[in-house]
Amino acid sequence: xxxxxxxxxxxxxxxxxxxxxxxxxxxxxxxxxxxxxxxxxxxxxxxxxxxxxxxxxxxxxxxxxxxxxxxxxxxxxxxxxxxxxxxxxxxxxxxxxxxxxxxxxxxxxxxxxxxxxxxxxxxxxxxxxxxxxxxxxxxxxxxxxxxxxxxxxxxxxxxxxxxxxxxxxxxxxxxxxxxxxxxxxxxxxxxxxxxxxxxxxxxxxxxxxxxxxxxxxxxxxxxxxxxxxxxxxxxxxxxxxxxxxxxxxxxxxxxxxxxxxxxxx
Length: 265
Description:
Residues 235-265 are annotated as: Disordered. Keywords: Membrane, Transmembrane, Transmembrane helix. It comes from Streptomyces vinaceus. The chain crosses the membrane at residues 6-25, 138-157, 163-181. The chain contains twelve helices and two strands. It is mainly α. The protein folds into two domains: 2-29 and 133-180, no CATH class; 42-131 and 186-238, no CATH class. It has a two-stranded antiparallel ribbon. α1 (2-24) packs antiparallel against α6 (134-148), α2 (42-65) packs across α3 and α3 (90-98) runs antiparallel to α5 (112-127). It starts with a helix and ends in a 27-residue tail after the last helix.
């Protein structure tokens, strides 16, 4: 009887783990763009690394480097209406459009138009097999949740009975489920590409504002450390890495007042 139960549990766990693995590591639907050179734009790279916040930070730097925005009073950003962005990313153009008056960078993350721009970008990365869609991430989690219950159920059911193999099977399945759990939206392919791009930049000379393209890529890849090293004044004065003040500075921008529940990575 115990052998039959163990076999049934093993089959069920194998099916759940295989389903989660297929959801967690989808194949890319198309080859990476220009894989021999720069496969992603800086804002795409930042979204892959740091989700919406990373993309907004990098897009803000993109606007600053072309003169379209500048730091404002009390740690905020404001746009220069005489210098609209040309040739910038969709996320950067969305930021520029919603910057009415002064806004803290964190408030920009919550704006509907900015969210739409980053969601469209995430969709393209999902087609490349670099990010999980929200549906895939939730489905993978749903397939793995019953697996985590296997060991406790076996332990409770095994009181006074020799269920050692079943308990061992449950613990092993739990370990595999932890490895497969979608902690971030990055797929294996996305994580490998990000590691490759970071490896190519490490050991090189730190970029400055005199090299805007290299500096923007550095910020996209490394986030806060690159901001502090490459753009210390802009980072401090714009509040790029700080929390927004409690009281509203400006009511422009049209964003939602509270963070929405999303599957952002």
